[in-house]
């Protein structure tokens, strides 16, 4: 009896397996088609279309956003967000949308262009679909050269000058024209009046993003010809003081915020709309985003399916806070999710986690102290990182010498080293591993690793301390400030991240090594040593 039923049971099992496989094929086919980028539509007036990655010899696939413990939703923006709130300064305060070119019913065939304005920062994040860039109409150096090849080059030639029509959008004649740029087949998309309202010059002598938007012309759809397309979302970025760590962090932050505010599903590519040479800092640009390229690397007009214009670093809260009070304190995302507070923010902590995650470091756990240095001691060991200032060649106009902020820095470091090595620190409950932070001779990844592993970060006022934006919670900052450099950069970052901050103000540019040791001892005791 059982032998007769076995073939029938076997047939039923095979049928069920085949049916299940069919359902799986249908599911994955639908999922693939719904999640893949929109294929470029066919237009008879376009001579050719093909996918072009903005990276060199890399896949066009974009990196996903990592899971960050301090992440809070960016879109939609918070309703009735107060001006000058912490979310307005550091998060999505870009709540006023202005459509300069509205999409037509057939969205895939035309362009649209809009800006999101922040009353708090008085700046805009703009984005457009089907935006055409004509490199020959942008006057600037090529960019991306090795530093040694362009020594002595004037900075003015590295910054873009946009001629009329440097960027173009395709306008269907049915579109409503609200840009105020005039009529005709070809017209200026955004008038000076609208620029003055939404992309204000402020105190910036040469506002390159304003110049870019001002150069955009709306042309007839039939005249919008593209031989080369970039299908992936792309950030257009212009950098000032690109070799300086502090100013580059403002650029990174602006690019990150722009990506989040516009709801990009993955990390975008970046195109530098400037002619600067390469720097070590590009290692982090490449880690944070899906690849970088210089505008002048394109040898002919190129069209971006989705372009996002990142505000200048000068327009971020990180920079504006230096001259105007931004009364915000760092708080955990968990606490803010449960109890929103307009005077607190977790955005800089989220950004710091983004940097650490971009380099492959874990962000879902707090830093732990190292194991004891020897089996005879059960005391934990804390990393104390001394961020040093070194001579190095930064940019074509640099002589290779950095300005000393602490003239006896070597003496101070050596005194700390001897104090730790002596074993007579007076700290009975923990040990110290003093780390010599020679950042100018370290990769960016190693610099970030040193920051995340440090319990205490010491340094004279200098751009290298901007790395504290990536510090983990409970890190203590000890800044040595000479009389000539009493500036609030790092005190503010520590405040906005919720880090403990200890300044040592000097009467001149020389620190008393004994006083530094005593201050560090005090800090270590506060950590339970």
Average pLDDT reading: 86
Q: How much of the sequence is in beta strands?
A: 15-25%
Portion in helices: 25-40%
Reported for the largest beta sheet, the result is: 11 strands, mixed
Describe this structure in words.
The protein has 529 residues and is α/β, with parallel strands linked by helices. It folds into 2 domains: 236 residues, no CATH class; 147 residues, Rossmann fold, CATH 3.40.50. The chain contains 13 helices and 20 strands. The strands form 4 sheets. Strands 1, 2, 3, 6, 7, 8, 9, 10, 11, 12 and 13 form an 11-stranded mixed beta sheet that branches. The chain has a 5-stranded parallel beta sheet with strand order 17-16-18-19-20, with helices on both faces. The longest helix has 34 residues. It is globular and about 80 Å long. The N terminus is likely disordered.
């Amino acid at each position: 009896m059982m032998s007769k039923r076995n073939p029938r049971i076997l047939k039923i099992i095979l049928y069920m397996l085949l049916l299940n496989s069919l359902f799986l094929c249908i599911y994955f086919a639908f999922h693939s088609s719904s999640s893949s980028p929109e294929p470029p539509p066919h237009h008879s007036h376009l001579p050719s279309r093909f996918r072009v990655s903005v990276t060199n010899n890399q896949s066009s696939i974009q990196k996903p956003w990592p899971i960050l413990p301090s992440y809070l939703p960016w879109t939609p923006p918070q309703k009735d967000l107060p001006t000058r709130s912490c979310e307005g300064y550091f998060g999505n305060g870009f709540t006023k949308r202005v459509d300069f070119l509205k999409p037509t019913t057939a969205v895939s065939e035309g362009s649209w262009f809009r800006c999101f304005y922040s009353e708090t920062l008085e700046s805009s994040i703009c984005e457009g679909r089907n935006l055409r860039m004509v490199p020959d109409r942008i006057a600037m150096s090529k960019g991306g050269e090795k530093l040694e090849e362009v020594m002595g080059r004037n900075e003015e030639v590295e910054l873009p000058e946009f001629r009329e029509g440097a960027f173009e959008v395709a306008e269907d004649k049915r579109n409503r024209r609200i840009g105020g740029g005039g009529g005709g087949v070809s017209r200026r998309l955004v008038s000076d009046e609208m620029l003055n309202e939404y992309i204000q010059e402020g105190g910036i002598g040469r506002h390159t993003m304003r110049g870019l938007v001002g150069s955009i012309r709306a042309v007839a759809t039939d005249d919008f010809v593209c031989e080369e397309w970039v299908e992936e979302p792309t950030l257009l970025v212009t950098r000032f003081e690109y070799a300086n760590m502090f100013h580059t962090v403002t650029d990174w932050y602006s690019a990150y915020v722009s990506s989040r505010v516009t709801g990009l599903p993955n990390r975008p590519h970046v195109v530098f709309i400037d002619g600067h040479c390469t720097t070590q800092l590009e290692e982090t640009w490449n880690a944070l985003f899906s690849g970088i390229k210089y505008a002048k690397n394109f040898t002919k007009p190129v069209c971006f399916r989705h372009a996002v214009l990142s505000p200048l670093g000068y327009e971020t809260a990180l920079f504006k806070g230096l001259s105007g009070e931004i009364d915000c304190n760092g708080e955990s995302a968990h606490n803010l999710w449960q109890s929103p507070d307009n005077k607190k923010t977790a955005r800089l902590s989220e950004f710091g986690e983004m940097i650490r995650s971009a380099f492959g470091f874990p962000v879902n756990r707090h830093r732990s102290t190292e194991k004891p240095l020897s089996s005879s001691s059960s005391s934990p060991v804390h990393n104390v990182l001394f961020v040093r200032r070194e001579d190095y060649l930064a940019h074509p106009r640099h002589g290779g010498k950095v300005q000393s902020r602490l003239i006896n820095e070597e003496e101070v470091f050596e005194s700390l080293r001897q104090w730790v090595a002596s074993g007579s620190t007076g700290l009975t409950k923990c040990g110290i591993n003093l780390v010599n932070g020679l950042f100018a001779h370290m990769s960016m990844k190693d610099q970030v690793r040193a920051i995340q592993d440090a319990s205490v970060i010491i340094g004279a006022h200098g751009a290298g301390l901007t790395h504290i934006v990536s510090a983990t919670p409970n890190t203590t900052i000890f800044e040595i400030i000479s009389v000539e450099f009493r500036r609030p950069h790092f005190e503010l970052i520590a405040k906005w991240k919720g880090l403990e901050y200890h300044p040592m103000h000097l009467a001149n540019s020389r620190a008393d090594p004994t006083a530094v040791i005593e201050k560090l001892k005090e800090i270590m005791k506060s950590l339970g040593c």
